[in-house]
Amino acid sequence: MKTRFLFFLVALLAVTATALVVAGMGFTQPPEHYPIITAYLFFITAGLMFKLMRLHHARPDKFVVYFLTAVGVKLTGHLIFLGVLIASFRSAVVPDVIYFISLYVAYTMISLFALYRQVTA
Prior knowledge:
Helix content: over 70%
Largest sheet: none
Radius of gyration: 16 Å
Number of domains: 1
Strand content: under 5%
Number of strands: 0
């Protein structure tokens, strides 16, 4: 389990570093709150994946229930985070939302790949 989680963490860190470098390079105007968004998504995704991998290792028969619960909690948390972000910073929130969604999709794809490898092993 540790090596699979480390593989997941390295992939997540690579995507995070790439996102931070691209956002900070100045090709276009970077999202105003990209460090906060990146840190939030990174820690939520890494924490939930670590917990899911541990739960799958301990009780594989209940994995589907754990996974669906984690998806529901994660989606609710993300919607609350986006709602607070939009309500707090109304002026230039569109780049932040686009950045959030694109990073969310990348993190979700990495998470699903890692979970698929965990479940089918």
